[in-house]
Amino acid sequence: MTLNDLDLACVNLRRAVLTGTTLLDANLAGADLTEAMLEEADLQRANLAGADLTAANLSKTMLAGASLLDANLSEITAPGASFRKARLAKARMMDASVREAIFTEISAAGASFHQSSFYDVDFTDSYLDDAQFYHARLQHSRLTGVSAVGANFGGAKLDHCNFSRADLSGAKFARAEVIQCVFRDAELREADFRDARMRGGDFSRALLAGARFSGAQLHTADFRGANLQGARELTAEQLAQALTDASTTLPNGHRGPYMRSSHAERPR
């Protein structure tokens, strides 16, 4: 079924079966698509601003270039969906299940992804400033080159994710579980890692000036090549858990490796 360019603003499509439907450039602003079946539907460039897609099935749905400003996508299932270059500012995607999906170059400032599960999702080069990933679960996902200034990953589980070249200035990782994640060349100024639980991970050439680490577990976190100058609340025990070498800049500005009793954990 082809419904391209139709004006369906504020239409009630609750539990509608739209599997395989083509809705290119359609106006669905404010529409009720709660529990709609949209598998393999083509909604590229559609206007879904303010639409309610709660619990919709978006399996392999095409939403590239769509406007989802302030839309409700809570509890969606979206395996294989494409949101490439979609606009998701202030959208709500809480308790969602997303697998093997494309979120590259999305604009999602202030979006809420609380308690959602993302597995093998590509967020490369997306704009995620102030986005909320509180208690979300991200596994084997790519966030390379994202801007996520002030984003909140508090209490999240981040497992084998790639944040290379990401701008995470002021991002919050408090109480997060961070397992073998890559932060190579990442900007982490003033980031909050308080009470985070790290296992492994690559921070080479990452900038961590002013980052907070009170209570964090840094088991085998690799800070070789990282710049920790000005990092706060690190203890001798924490730095002894991590990996440092002569390419590490320690909190006091001196070169590593970290040596116990050197007091290099104290910023100047």
Kindly report how far apart the N and C termini lie: 67 Å
- The total strand number stands at 7
The 3D shape can be described as elongated
Q: Looking at this structure, what is the CATH superfamily of the largest domain?
A: E3 ubiquitin-protein ligase SopA
| Secondary-structure element pattern, one letter each | EEEEEEEH
Strand content: 5-15%
Please state how the strands of the largest beta sheet are arranged side by side: 1-2-3-4-5-6-7
The assigned CATH architecture of the largest domain is: 3 Solenoid
Largest sheet: 7 strands, parallel
Helicity range:
under 10%
The tally of structural domains comes to: 2
Radius of gyration: 21 Å
- Structural class, by secondary structure, is little secondary structure
CATH class of the largest domain: Mainly Beta
